[in-house]
């Protein structure tokens, strides 16, 4: 395979650059380093000139001696090596070997525009390469992506196709079917000017490159729907039954990095480079990117910094970093769903990380300490919904149970053979009833009724389920007792139907899945569908005057039909005339 020319500092550097002033305290520097996970920070004077670098090691020495209020300028390194954006990888590597700081400031016209670390240099050896032969995209979609890439290039930005679409394109080469209806595009808006310290505030703004590019696409395609999520620097473009694109969704985002203020929280988002953007992703197979702009060969360039191609070939799901499941337990559910859906396995170390996270007790701790824990509330229910709606729900739940990950729903939740049988029966009943009952929600309720009433209600509230669902879970035992006490008194189908008609379909399903035998399934699938051969219009045509008597006649007709006493229109008319005189 032909490789591209050696990358330069411009290709590898992290930007925008987070910096600190010489007069900041060591305590302030420590807070920044901990927040962003850096090992050092460049120090810029009032004129935005590079004055030095404060490293983690020197900082910790000062803090250990009780000098938290000392000034950064007294501890920073000033004998620095610097490079330019065009400095090649080999030279960067040599400079870092000679450096005691471990970070190379990248200067352009004396302005700090980026930082290259030893990790960046290692990443440089996994530089972009011509993508393998990929299946052809539909012409309309290919033209659309080319158009968006041209608009990005005109503004000096790089555009990348990332995540699941790249994964599925690569898997399609192995004969898997390809269906691209949801695409993720990432705009690296820092390449135009280096996104240095002086311009960082502009690039960290909410109206960032991805949002701006999405607005441009909307102007070019007026029928598209645009939704902007400024907090996350993303925009969603949606085509619905479009004559050219059919149903298509494109998420456009600015390349960004994420910081989790506490485990399972919503991340705080800041603009960054494509490399940092890929590092924040969940698994190596989803951290692949195709560069759609600035092609230096005849085909898109593939960025594979974390071994995603190898993991696709090996059929394994591998997480990017050890704390991934601590930061976002939703990734546990996503990892299992991908493994089942793609017929992959969790990499052994990734499975270990899952078990470490679920056994740590951290999820219970953060829920006790924080009123809002999105990754165990809104994001988890969205991920769980996808699994329950899929035809492979059973192996997903079984793998989650084997990993101990059902504790993310509730610590007492278990998956037994009886629960699986109940879920299967609930799916059959949900599919056969005429009433609108959401399958995933019905399945979730079946899972929850195995818990204590207060526990199931707590989970429902955590997941922000509707008041109707919460009420049903609260009153389940009482409704179940009512139904079970009344059913033996019903001798005919019409009596059973009259009884059960007073309860919600979802309640009846919950009661039915816990019984070895009952007439409830027959009611849901058969008796509830039965209609009398005559309706109000027919009674009027027979000469009966409308009024309260209509309801009584129709109820008796329905009961007689259910009990097999009448089966056709003629029999129904005789039934009515025998009982009700004109």
TrEMBL record:
Organism superkingdom: Bacteria
GO biological process: tRNA processing
Pfam families recorded: CBS, PolyA_pol
This protein's UniProt keywords: CBS domain, Magnesium, Metal-binding, Nucleotide-binding, Nucleotidyltransferase, RNA-binding, Transferase, tRNA processing, tRNA-binding
Chain ranges of the CBS domain: 13-69, 76-131
GO molecular function: metal ion binding; nucleotide binding; nucleotidyltransferase activity; tRNA binding
Cofactor: Mg(2+)
InterPro entries in the record: CBS_dom, CBS_dom_sf, NT_sf, PolA_pol_head_dom, tRNA_nt/polyA_polymerase
Keyword S-adenosyl-L-methionine listed: no
PROSITE patterns: CBS
Family label: Belongs to the tRNA nucleotidyltransferase/poly(A) polymerase family.
Protein name per its UniProtKB record: CBS domain-containing protein
Species of the source: Pegethrix bostrychoides GSE-TBD4-15B
